[in-house]
Each structure stands twice: as structure tokens, then as C-alpha cells.
Write a structure and sequence with these properties.
Layout: E1 7-8, E2 11-12, H1 15-37, H2 44-67, H3 69-74, H4 76-81, H5 88-106, H6 110-135, H7 170-188, H8 197-213, E3 221-223, E4 226-227, H9 228-254
Antiparallel strand pairs: 1-2, 3-4
Length: 255
């Protein structure tokens, strides 16, 4: 939405990178509060965020290579180190692997640790999508005539439409959805529940929101009328929903 021309001397400061840093800081603060509430050292959150950031960034870039193999072959350095975009599902996989190692190192049960991560993760997504909106990294939606349609003339990936064309501001849609999910998780977190419940609700709600937004995104379809992100969303909703249902059956059997 605004020119991505900030510099610190000769060093470019990308808008998306700035918002990603804010997202990680906010996530770290929330994670620290949750670690303390669960009886762990809140200072572990700063280390956890570093582990998660490294894993997420690596996973996101590798997923980008998977999505755009011809582009990687044409310009591998440009694709891997461009200032645009962050493929969330690649970041989720990479971050999950990194956090698994972190939990094991510090003796934190995986599902218990994942519950602490869930609200931190979704608040980070909400803020990160603001970075997508500001920088115009190609995450906008399809052409539309709705009153809130927008243009991205300073998009870091280039604005492909002629003057007068507006598109769905899908980063805003996702950001609002993730802020709402964070509010729900933050409210629910104090309720007595089995380990893993919060994280599974995160999978169901956040992935469900992404699935719906994809219908007005510009991503290409890969199977039927579904995009790769929608297929990944379905898998995560099924995983989260299956565990929630299983927990419900366990509680019913115990009662």
C-alpha cells in the first residue's frame, strides 16, 4: 500500500520484515505469559521464539521452492532471499519441527507446550498479515467491485492490474479472523481441559479461516477448485478435529 523504500544507510528495511519482527516479538510476549501460567520459566519464551523463527523461515522458503520450482531454477538466489512473501504452511511445518526439538531439550510435553504456543502463533499470524497488506507481497484477492476493494500500486511483487481495478484485501480478512481467534483462545485458555485442546482448536479455527479466505485469493487451483493452501487447511482441520472428538469421547467414557 505504501512504497517499500525505507533504508538504514545502505541497508534496505522491508515493510514485511518489520512487521514480521513485530509479530515474533508479540508472539514471544504471549508465549512467555503462557509458559509462566503453566509452571515453566517465562524466560524460555525468548529462546523458543528464536528456534521457531529459524525453523519457520527455513520451512517457508523451502515450501516456496516447492510451490515455484521453475522460478527457483531460473533465479534460486532471488527466490530464496526476496523481501516478499512468507508461505505460512511451510513456516508452520518448519516451526513445528523446531519447537519439537525445543520442547524435548527442555523437558516440556509436546501437547502441553503446543497449547502454550497456540495463542502466540495466531497473534503472530494476525500481525504478519498486516505486513502482507502494507508491502503488497502478492497475497491480495481476486478482482472485485465491493466498496472496500483496494489497489496495491507499490506492491513489492508488482501490481499487475490497470488503473481502476480493485481487488479483495485478503490480508485484512485473514488478520481480522486471526485476531478474533486469538481473543477466543485467550479467553478459553484458563478453562480446565486436556493437553492439546487449545492447539487443536487453533488448527481447526485458523485453518478453517484460511480455507474460506482462499476462495477470494489469487492462488492457483491444484485439485478440483481447491488451492494447495486449502488442501493443507483440510488436513489440519481434520487433525485438530479428530483429536478434539477423541478427547470428547475420553471424557464421556470417564464420566
Amino acid at each position: 500500500m505504501i512504497p517499500d523504500v525505507l533504508h538504514l544507510g545502505p541497508i534496505p528495511i522491508h515493510l514485511f520484515g518489520m512487521m514480521l519482527a513485530v509479530a515474533f516479538m508479540a508472539a514471544g510476549h504471549v508465549l512467555g505469559l503462557e509458559f509462566e501460567r503453566k509452571g515453566y520459566n517465562g524466560d524460555l519464551a525468548s529462546s523458543a521464539v528464536l528456534w521457531c523463527a529459524a525453523g519457520s523461515l527455513a520451512g517457508a522458503r523451502l515450501w516456496l521452492v516447492f510451490e515455484d520450482w521453475p522460478g527457483f531454477l531460473r533465479d534460486p538466489v532471488g527466490l530464496l532471499f526476496t523481501g516478499s512473501g512468507f508461505v505460512f504452511y511451510g513456516g508452520l511445518v518448519g516451526g513445528a519441527l523446531a519447537m519439537t526439538l525445543f520442547f524435548r531439550r527442555h523437558g516440556i510435553p509436546w501437547w502441553r507446550g503446543a497449547d502454550a504456543v497456540a495463542p502466540a502463533l495466531v497473534i503472530g499470524q494476525a500481525i504478519g498479515r498486516i505486513g502482507c497488506q502494507l508491502s503488497g507481497d502478492g497475497d491480495w484477492g481476486t478482482v472485485t467491485t465491493v466498496p472496500w476493494g483496494m489497489v496495491y500500486p507499490y506492491a513489492v511483487v508488482g501490481w499487475p492490474y490497470p488503473p481502476g481495478v480493485r481487488v479483495h484485501p485478503t490480508p485484512i480478512y485473514e488478520s481480522l479472523a486471526y485476531f478474533a481467534i486469538f481473543a477466543l483462545l485467550w479467553r478459553w485458555r484458563r478453562s480446565p481441559q486436556p493437553d492439546g485442546t487449545m492447539f487443536c482448536w487453533y488448527l481447526v479455527l485458523a485453518s478453517g479461516a484460511r480455507f474460506l479466505v482462499e476462495f477470494v485469493r489469487v492462488n492457483p487451483v491444484v485439485v478440483g477448485n481447491l488451492t494447495a493452501a486449502q488442501l493443507a487447511s483440510i488436513v489440519l482441520v481434520v487433525i485438530g478435529g479428530a483429536r478434539l472428538l477423541a478427547q470428547g469421547r475420553w471424557r464421556a467414557a470417564e464420566a
